[in-house]
Specification:
The complex is a heterodimer of chains A (about 800) and B (about 260). With about 800 residues, chain A is an alpha+beta fold. Chain A contains 18 helices and 28 strands. The chains are: A alpha+beta (about 800), B alpha+beta (about 260). The interface of A and B includes residues 130, 691 and 776 of A.
């Protein structure tokens, strides 16, 4: 076994700089002569812009420029795009409301960008931004899905009913037929609450223009610097792609919110060129609440048809999703192809039909947030499964066992696009139930009741599609880009290894896991590997990090690059050892002539490649290789979460007493990091279920939860100590590593498990977030008939 | 923040002089409300007068059977004080439930009561124990001190120097925290004192208030059951995205029961 190789719980090498305060984030970078940008944002949810009076700040100390939407248009700065085309059921393309980098005609949500003020110092820029006179004509606002289609307000004047698209997936006729014959139909109406991503580091951008090279360098809080470069050059006209360098240095979390191409970063880059000065923008927390794309916000009616034995026959889902004021970079894909194809869950459901309508509202744009569509799907399916178990009087674990796709059915084609790669759902469930002592639960419930507490247990079985994506499949479904990944491996003279990846790490620990992968594959010491990422000038083209794809796609590209190195090394070794290539074997960093003790280490081969004193005549010097990987399919991690809660019936407060997670991530490179990923995902899922909720005032459209005083983020004492175990695992055939991806699982499965536990405790379903008042009211409702008896 | 002049006087007298000279000045104690307000540019004081350098404002001592807590004493010092734990343990408990360790190491009792946030914890203790607020020029009874939302009886140039807590026979505080801010969504302080039973409620209404109906019921029978016969009028209470007035009214009774049970040990 290689020291610090694949499968070992190696502590993260990046933590040396993070825990000693030596990380280098965008805001840590200070360029000589840098000026500061502050955005003037709309205080109204919906208003016509009558006038932006630039003269109102002219002559204020330090002010260098005020930029408006009209200036951007005049300079040919293109509007922001949505990169995934969705067609409605009637074949018409989605209706895209123009999303300018700075608003021109109307503002459409509180926080919408109206102007950008650049000044010598941050304080001067703020003073001027505050002083800038903007005249608005207020318009009625729509913030709510319930009223979006009938609202008097049109978010975009040319989009009737605020409807972006009315999309469907699946066989409607087959579903209707199955429902007609079903022994029982259960239905639920549920809300998937709107969330604010709240990465630890708010967004920031710093742009510098080099007139000598006619080139812009943009330091950015990005999960995917190459995607930023591509879109900003191809659509926003910031600079030609080869004249725009995007650097995403250390980034403090993203959860999706730093995938997207926002107006602020375009304006900062454009302003730097116009002023010939570096320009920096740093978001404040309050600004992040308004300006970073939110997540979720669905309202769904879902029905499940079952036979008398509880076998699932068909699923029908009707979802209305809130897009916010504009389409964001991938916002069209989240409630469609990242959602409906996961509605089969872990189950055989012969027929599925989903209809999804998305609406514009006067709220912050909504896009991918950890899980992106898949938590919403899991919550729908797992709520219905519990509803069916209750309706038929079948144990909740048993109804799942009856309907699981069995291990021998893979690859399994669902009725909604996906072909699941591998899985062993029952093993995960049974192990989770064993760890949770499901069998002994009733005793604990009685014991809690004696103490005046309501105890409940809940199960959430999730499926996730990771490793986005097979490019051809994604493009055929509307994606505007391919979703492969690339990597480059470069030996130095002295046998050290530089690894360049197109993925980006902003908390995932790639520097450690990729080092382990290389150490294992090339047989070099873990410490001799340096992982370099996040700079379009130095790293190979890449599609970045989201959708739990980095290991399954980027890791595989890296593995393939390593294999190319080994193949070239074999040629060099054969020459030096005077043997035929076929007789050279490679193991643990050593090339050896089979059956002899004649050997060369890979470091010796690297030296020979750069100092080719004796070298194969037909071979190029040097030892480096690059590889691209485009997966043949998604990967499908799965698992079971079991959650046990106690509810204080007098206050409605929920305490999580116990949490068991059994996940099947396929092959795991670093169990320590993966366990941390599970913890983080679970906490975010618990946050959604119990605490987090972005609430807008229905009249004014103001975000009422605009700070941590009102937006409840989970804290350490809100969550229990987790029991996390990895199932023996079913390695994915979609890549040779067998790795499925682990970044989002916790956030996908947790809400269902927790909400099912609360349902079990109080006897009625509660909407997310299950605030104390909601739970208390639910308890009162269920107890009232008893009180009347 | 907007620019301001910073002062760090060494005495209360000097601080008062600064307040008189600079009518737009603000006092800075622990800064847990003021600094975030400044950072969001929601306030624009000309001067900040930092009370952190005034030694006489800090410390906990006994004075004629009463407990005197200096205005600039941080919550964490009250929480861990042996003297407080021995004399009025309910205060140590209350202080220990404020914010998190960082907040408790900076935030002060004087700052809290002078600000009179409707959801702060300290006003419940000051009113619930019938404490006396000592300032640079006078003593103000708790019943006269808290006059409305973020309003107190303090003059513009007046500085709280200490709070004098009489020792109760028994007392306890029960708090239901707001899940986001961890301020009190409802907090009830119950005390049986030489002057009678006092019940103060924070978090539920625009200003801390005494629940006199419950005080009367408890005077007759100091037991959790006494709460059952008392009606809490929801129409006077706050309603917001975290809790409706109805729910707050219900929580007042639940927290009152818990405080009484806790006071009874």
């Amino acid at each position: 076994m290689v020291e610090k190789g694949i499968g070992q719980a190696v502590p993260r090498k990046e933590d040396r700089r993070f825990v000693t305060g030596r990380g280098r984030y965008v805001d840590d970078i200070r360029l000589p002569g840098q000026a500061w940008a502050v955005f003037v944002r709309s205080p109204h949810a919906h208003a016509r812009i009558r006038r932006v009076d630039k003269a109102s700040v002219e002559g204020m100390p330090g002010v260098l420029a005020v930029f408006t939407g009209a200036d951007a248009e005049a300079d040919g700065i293109g509007p922001l795009i949505c990169g995934w085309m969705i067609h409605s059921r009637d074949g018409t393309p989605m209706k895209v409301g123009t999303h300018r980098v700075l608003a021109t005609d109307k503002v459409r949500y509180v926080g919408d960008r109206v102007a950008c003020v650049v000044a010598e110092t941050l304080h001067q820029a703020r003073d001027a931004a505050e002083a800038l006179v903007v005249e608005y004509e207020e318009l009625p606002a729509v913030v709510d899905l319930a009223t979006a289609d009938e609202a008097p307000a049109l978010v975009h004047d040319d989009i009737p009913g605020n409807l972006c698209y009315d999309w469907e997936l699946g066989d409607r006729a087959a579903v209707e037929e199955a429902f007609a014959k079903a022994a029982r139909v259960v239905s639920v109406d549920l809300v998937n609450n709107r969330l604010v991503p709240n990465a630890l580091e708010p967004r920031a951008a710093l742009a510098a223009y080099d007139p000598g090279r006619d080139e812009i360098t943009l330091y950015l809080t990005s999960q995917n610097p190459h995607v930023h470069r591509l879109v900003m050059s191809a659509f926003n006209n910031i600079a030609p792609e080869h004249k725009l360098r995007v650097v995403a240095p250390d980034v403090g979390g993203g959860f999706g919110s730093k995938i997207f191409i926002y107006g602020e970063e375009c304006v900062v880059a454009w302003a730097a060129r116009k002023l010939g000065r570096p320009v920096k923008w740093r978001e404040e927390r309050g600004e992040a609440f308004l300006a970073d794309a939110h997540g979720r916000d669905h309202v769904t009616r879902a029905e499940l048809a079952v036979d008398a034995d509880g076998r699932f026959l068909a699923l029908r889902v009707d979802t209305r999703a809130n897009l916010g004021a504009y389409m964001s970079t991938f916002s069209s894909a989240v409630p469609t192809y990242l959602y409906a194809p996961l509605l089969s869950g872990q189950y055989r459901i012969p027929a599925i039909h989903a209809r999804v309508r998305t609406y514009y509202t006067n709220t912050t744009p909504v896009d991918a947030y950890r899980g992106a569509g898949r938590p919403e799907a899991c919550f729908v399916v797992e709520t219905l499964v519990d509803a069916a178990a209750r309706a038929l009087g079948i144990d909740r674990a048993e109804i799942r066992r009856r309907n699981f796709i069995p291990p021998d059915a893979f690859p399994y084609q669902t009725p909604v696009v996906m072909t699941y790669d591998s899985g062993d759902y029952r093993t995960c469930l049974d192990r989770a139930l064993e760890l949770a002592d499901y069998a002994g639960f009733e005793r604990r419930r009685q014991e809690a009741r004696a103490r005046g507490r309501l105890r409940g247990i809940g199960i959430g079985c999730y499926i996730e599609a990771c490793g986005i994506a097979p490019s051809q499949a994604a493009i055929s479904l509307g994606a505007g880009v391919g979703l492969w990944e690339s990597a480059e491996v470069r030996f130095t003279h002295t046998g050290k290894v530089q690894v360049y990846t197109g993925t980006h790490t902003h908390g995932q620990g790639h520097e450690t896991t990729f080092s382990q992968l290389v150490a294992e594959t090339l047989g070099v010491p873990f410490e001799d590997v340096e992982v370099i990422h996040g700079d379009t000038a130095t790293t190979p083209v890449g599609m970045g990090t989201y959708g739990s794809r980095s290991q399954a796609v980027g890791g595989e590209a890296l593995l393939r690059a390593c294999h190319k190195i080994i193949e070239k090394g074999r040629k060099i070794a054969a020459h030096l050892l005077e043997a035929s290539e076929a007789d050279i074997e490679f193991e643990a960093g050593v090339f050896r002539v089979k059956g002899t003790d004649r050997r060369k280490t890979i470091q010796e081969i690297a030296f020979a490649a750069y100092v080719p004193a004796s070298y194969p005549a037909d071979l190029e010097p040097g030892l480096e290789a690059s590889a691209f990987f485009d997966p043949p399919n998604f990967t499908f991690p799965s698992g079971t979460y079991v959650c046990e809660v106690e509810v204080d019936p007098e206050t409605g407060r929920v305490r999580i007493e116990k949490w068991v997670a059994v996940d099947d991530f396929g092959r795991i490179i670093n169990p320590l990091i993966v366990e941390g990923q599970v913890h983080g995902g679970l906490v975010q899922g618990i946050g959604q279920a119990l605490l987090e909720h972005a609430v807008y005032d229905r009249e004014s459209g103001q975000l009422l939860t605009g700070s941590f005083m009102d937006y409840a983020m989970p804290r350490a004492d809100d969550v229990p100590s987790f029991t996390v175990e990895f199932a023996p695992g079913s390695p994915t055939p979609s890549n040779t590593l067998g790795a499925k991806g682990a970044g989002e699982a916790g956030a996908i499965g947790a809400p269902a498990a927790l909400m099912n536990a609360i349902w079990d405790a109080v006897g009625t379903r509660v909407e997310m977030p299950a605030t104390p008042e909601r739970v208390w009211r639910a308890i009162r409702q269920t107890q009232m008939p008893q009180a009347a008896e | 923040m907007y620019a301001f002049e910073y002062h760090r006087p060494a005495s209360v007298a000097e601080a008062v002089r600064l307040l008189r000279e600079k009518p737009e000045a603000k006092l800075l104690a622990g800064g847990h409300t003021l600094i975030p307000t400044l950072k969001q540019r929601l306030a624009q004081p000309s001067d900040l007068v930092d009370l952190g350098g005034i030694a006489e404002l800090r410390g906990i001592r006994e004075e004629g059977g009463a407990l005197v807590i200096g205005a600039a004493t941080p919550h964490g010092e009250v929480e861990t004080s042996d003297l407080v734990r021995r004399t009025i343990p309910a205060l140590a408990h209350l202080a220990g439930e404020i914010g998190d360790p960082q907040v408790r190491n900076r935030g002060t009792i004087g700052g809290s009561i002078a600000n009179n946030d409707p959801a702060a914890d300290w006003p419940a203790a000051v009113l619930g124990l019938g404490a006396t607020v000592r300032t640079d020029r006078r003593e103000i009874a708790a019943d006269d001190f808290f006059t409305g939302m973020f309003e107190t009886a303090l003059e513009a140039d007046e500085i709280v120097t200490a709070v004098v807590f009489p020792r109760p026979r028994r007392a306890a505080y029960a708090k239901f925290p707001n899940p986001a801010s961890r301020y009190a969504m409802v907090g009830v302080f119950v005390a049986e004192t030489d002057g009678g039973v006092r019940v103060a409620v924070t978090g539920a209404a625009p200003c801390v208030f005494r629940l006199t109906a419950l005080e009367r019921a408890l005077a007759a029978n100091f037991a959790p059951e006494a709460v059952d016969g008392v009606t809490v009028d929801a129409s006077e209470l706050n309603s917001d995205i975290h809790a409706s007035a109805d729910y707050r009214a219900h929580l007042v009774k639940v927290m009152a029961k818990r405080a009484i049970a806790s006071a009874l040990g």
